[in-house]
Design a protein that fits this description.
- This protein starts with a helix and ends with a helix.
- The longest helix is centred in the middle third of the chain and has 17 residues, at 419-435.
- By secondary structure, the protein is α+β, with helices and mostly antiparallel strands.
- The protein has 5 domains: 2-83, no CATH class; 86-295, Polyketide synthase dehydratase (Thiol Ester Dehydrase, Chain A, Roll); 311-435, Non-ribosomal Peptide Synthetase Peptidyl Carrier Protein, Chain A (Orthogonal Bundle); 447-545, Non-ribosomal Peptide Synthetase Peptidyl Carrier Protein, Chain A (Orthogonal Bundle); 556-830, Alpha/Beta hydrolase fold, catalytic domain (Rossmann fold, 3-Layer(aba) Sandwich), CATH 3.40.50.1820.
- The protein is built from 27 helices and 24 strands.
- Strands 1, 2, 3, 4, 5, 7, 8, 9, 10, 11, 12, 13 and 14 form a 13-stranded antiparallel sheet that branches.
- Residues 272-322, 408-427, 523-557 are annotated as: Disordered.
- Residues 1-88 are annotated as: N-terminal hotdog fold.
- InterPro entries: AB_hydrolase_fold, ACP-like_sf, PKS_dehydratase_sf, PKS_DH_C, PKS_mFAS_DH, PKS_NRPS_Biosynth_Enz, PKS_PP-bd, PP-bd_ACP.
- Residues 115-263 are annotated as: C-terminal hotdog fold.
Length: 831
């Protein structure tokens, strides 16, 4: 439907009947739309809303059921369609398509040798019959070769539907058939016990086709599914016409659910429930919604019941003593259903990042009602998107707080007669809950301990007396800016294992509000007038909490880099690092991000959490606030960064990345690691120009960019920022990179912004000249195609994968484009 509407819009705007390649992206299925029976008395209407802007490049779609009065009903799904270019896609695919043609050949050889199963069309759909009965037009897989153990398969596709089976712009039977294999690998494999769980498709990241499918041709495809976050399986489907790759479905995602839950997600026609042995999970999107797909005969079961809870208003934010017991039960259910250890579920983690989608939320909210007697709506994990927020809301409900009314759809709230005071408290409580996304180990620290440590860290970072700190009420008045906020929250995250968001001081701008937020989350109380013991006039900061002034290393070669030229203390200045996300205690991988020309870790402050299994550090330049001293060159400053990286992680393998000039520094750090005999497992270059013959940016361009509000994290830039950019560019201009040994070079992901800066500058045009350097073109011009842009001379073409992302050089590290960058980093780290 999206492809049909997008094609109609394109032809109407461009007056062209030619086929236009499309990329159907970010398909998210919130709730399946299930067709009613032919004897249904009322019409069943579905509204597809398409939104586009001129010039026509992208169309956004939303799918809703429609009530009889014409109003929107249930929201079902959303996606985007981006118009593409066949030549660019084919050029991109040619870099890797041979790998999957070879896998198809390997599977075929293995089947001939009896190593893998060869399954005919009849056998395949017969094996599915106890789950789903497919109409003949959907039985497009003629032959399947299946490696159950590795969830890998290929299939020969011969469409059973023809052009005479409907007047389609994009035949839905055929589209379903080319990606159908991904679901069969899971639901039709003997590696999965379908009596206990089934897999339901929950969308994909991207579906690209470079030419129309044809009912007269046969195709082959390949897929290998692998473990995603929580209980999901993810894979890419490659589709070939002979030797030519014609379609690619990226990030096809399936959610594992208990068979007992299937009735709630896909209720059968006439309201009858599925028999446990005959439930019908779709293996691709919308299968059960198709008229030719029938579920097996149901048997009736009793409907589940849930308890309703009535709440009275309360101005107290301190939960009762059983709060920790309820939180323990909640976390136990979440941990069990997601298949993750409790240690992986830190309170700053977003549920979406750990596999909690709308399907899984049904299971968890159902168990909360039954086992914990907490009545929460199915939208709970959308309303409270992080673990910390969910804990806070559950504690608030348990205490009888007003927020309990927000938590449950079935609760009735009896307002206490407390006058304006109750209204004020209710408003502040609601605001606090919406903004709070902090987390802590509830059993380990009291609110007083956390608040004391928070204020102690603020005092140390801003350098004022502790007694003076409490005389100020607002953190802004204390001097806590965005850079300071990042540093403070990073230290708290590391030293207390407490995940404060980088926006904590914006969400809770005063000491009192910070106290209340922390108190409510931990379930203990603090006195807002009390002075923490560590803030007595005679106290001093704990020396163990401060970073060392010189980072040492056991590696003699590394020590030489950092300590050489003892008469010049510039090389003695340490780089520093901030823990952005994850826990160094529980993560299996650590990603170090090198700063851009600003020298500041704040460039990465909007980067979402990559994964519960990945710890992310962002580094600060030793000369961040003293750019006039930054004269020792890229090679030597890379040694200072490496000293800090080795302090955090003494031994490899290492994962390094950087944005803009930070990518160049990440490359040089990786080069130095090779010289030490260490291995860089992955290198991520986020819109980083190749440093070969890189000219400095003119000051006029830097000031132009600053005028657009792009250099500061919130539209303003400190006095040292532009001078640091200028110092960085001077050091880059004098830097001559050396190529790596191609055998030892790291596997590298280059993430390129598609657009030039001037595309978003509207009427503000920077004067161009014919002799401008490539660094200027890098920022201002759009990228017409995917290329390695010179990096192949340093790393080797065979070690590089290039991906485009929406946005320009600066927007890729800002919302919403940074979400796509995070997704690519996640994929690169999972390989």
């Amino acid at each position: 439907m999206a492809v049909t509407l997008a094609g109609h819009l394109y032809r109407k705007v461009n007056k062209s009947e030619d086929f236009i390649p499309m990329d159907v992206r970010h398909l998210e299925i919130a709730k399946p739309a299930i067709a009613k029976g032919h004897d249904a008395k009322e019409e069943q209407l579905l509204r597809i809303t398409a939104t586009a802007e001129r010039p026509l490049r992208l169309v956004k779609f939303a799918y809703n059921s429609i009530h009889q009065d014409g109003s929107d009903g249930e929201f079902h799904a959303s996606c985007e369609v981006q118009y593409g270019d066949a030549k660019s896609l084919l050029a991109d695919w040619s870099r890797f398509d041979y790998l999957f043609r070879s896998r198809i050949d390997v599977l075929a050889q293995g089947a001939n040798a009896g190593k893998y199963k060869k399954i005919s069309r009849g056998q395949a759909y017969e094996s599915f019959s106890s789950l789903v009965q497919y109409g003949k037009k959907y039985q497009g897989m003629k032959e399947i070769i299946l490696d159950s153990k590795n969830f890998e398969a290929s299939s020969l596709i011969e469409f059973q539907a023809t052009d005479n089976d409907g007047d389609f712009d994009a035949n839905p039977y055929w589209i379903d058939n080319i990606a159908h294999l991904s679901g069969f690998v899971l639901n039709g494999s003997d590696a999965v016990d379908s009596k206990k769980q089934v897999y339901i498709s929950h969308g994909w990241e991207s579906l690209q086709m470079v030419r129309p499918l044809s009912g007269s041709r046969s195709y082959r495809n390949h897929v290998r599914m692998h473990q995603g976050p929580g209980k999901t399986m993810v894979g890419d489907v490659y589709v070939f016409d002979g030797d030519d790759m014609v379609a690619l479905a990226v990030g096809v995602k399936f959610q594992a659910i208990p068979r007992s839950l299937l009735n709630k997600i896909l209720p059968p026609i006439n309201g009858a429930a599925h028999h446990p042995e005959s439930q019908a999970p779709p293996s691709m999107k919308g299968m059960v919604g198709h008229p030719d797909v029938k579920t097996s005969k149901p048997e009736k079961q009793p409907a589940p019941t849930s308890k309703k809870i009535s709440h009275k208003a309360s101005t107290s934010v301190s939960p009762p003593q059983n709060g920790n017991r309820i939180i323990t039960g909640f976390m136990s259910i979440v941990s069990e259903e997601l298949g993750l250890e409790s240690s992986e579920l830190h309170d700053g983690a977003a549920f979406a990042d750990v596999g909690m989608d709308s399907l899984m939320s049904l299971t968890v909210t159902g168990r909360l009602r039954e086992e914990c007697e907490i009545d929460v709506p199915t939208s709970f994990f959308v309303d409270k998107p992080t673990i910390g927020e969910a804990k806070f809301a559950i504690l608030a409900q348990d205490s009888g707080n007003l927020e309990g009314g927000v938590l449950t759809e079935s609760a009735s709230t009896e307002s206490a007669s407390t006058g304006s005071a109750a209204t004020t408290d209710a408003t502040s409580g609601d605001q606090m809950i919406r903004n709070t996304s902090i987390g802590t180990n509830l059993a380990k620290y009291t609110a007083e301990d956390i608040t004391e440590k928070l204020l102690s860290t603020v005092s140390e970072e801003i350098g004022i007396e502790q007694s003076q700190l409490l005389e100020m009420s607002d953190f802004v008045d204390m001097g806590v800016d965005s850079l300071m906020s990042l540093s403070i929250t990073g230290r708290i995250r590391e030293e207390l294992d407490l995940d404060l968001p980088t926006t904590f001081f914006v969400d809770h701008p005063s000491v009192g509000e910070a106290r209340i937020a922390i108190s409510a989350l931990t379930g203990t109380s603090t006195s807002e007038d009390a002075t923490p013991s560590s803030y007595s006039e005679n106290s001093s900061p704990d020396d163990t909490d401060t970073l060392p002034t010189i980072h040492s290393s056991n590696d003699p070669n590394l020590a030489d880099w950092v300590m050489e030229d003892r008469g010049n203390d510039l090389t003695l200045r340490p780089a520093t690092s901030i823990l952005l996300s994850g826990s160094p205690k529980t993560s299996s991988k650590t990603l170090f991000l090198l700063p851009d020309g600003s020298g500041s870790a704040t460039s990465f402050s909007l980067l979402p959490s990559i994964s519960p299994d990945v710890c992310v550090y962002a580094l600060n330049c030793p000369f961040m606030k003293t750019p006039a001293d930054f004269m020792n060159g890229i090679d030597r400053v890379s040694g200072q960064y490496l000293a800090e990286i080795k302090r955090r992680q003494p031994q490899g393998p290492y994962y390094l990345g950087g944005w803009s000039a930070g990518g160049v520094i990440a490359y040089q750090v990786s080069y130095k690691l090779l010289e030490l005999g260490e291995k860089t497992e992955r290198l991520f270059l986020v819109d980083s120009p190749c440093p070969i013959n890189l000219e400095p940016l003119p000051s006029s361009l830097l000031h132009f960019i600053d005028s657009l509000g792009l250099l500061g994290t919130r539209g303003t830039s400190p006095d040292w920022l532009i001078p640091h950019f200028q110092a960085t560019m001077k050091n880059l201009a004098s830097f001559t990179p050396r190529p790596m040994d191609l055998v030892d070079a790291p596997k590298t992901l280059i993430i390129l912004a598609r657009d030039g800066l001037l595309k978003d500058a509207k009427d503000q045009i920077f004067p161009r000249s014919s002799g401008e350097g490539k660094s200027v073109k890098w920022l201002l011009d759009s990228r017409r195609g995917i290329g390695t842009y010179g990096w192949e001379k340093l790393i080797g073409d065979e070690n590089i994968i290039v991906m485009n992302v929406p946005g320009n050089h600066f927007s890729v590290i800002r919302e919403p484009d940074v979400e796509r960058v995070a997704s690519l980093l996640r994929r690169g780290l999972s390989v």
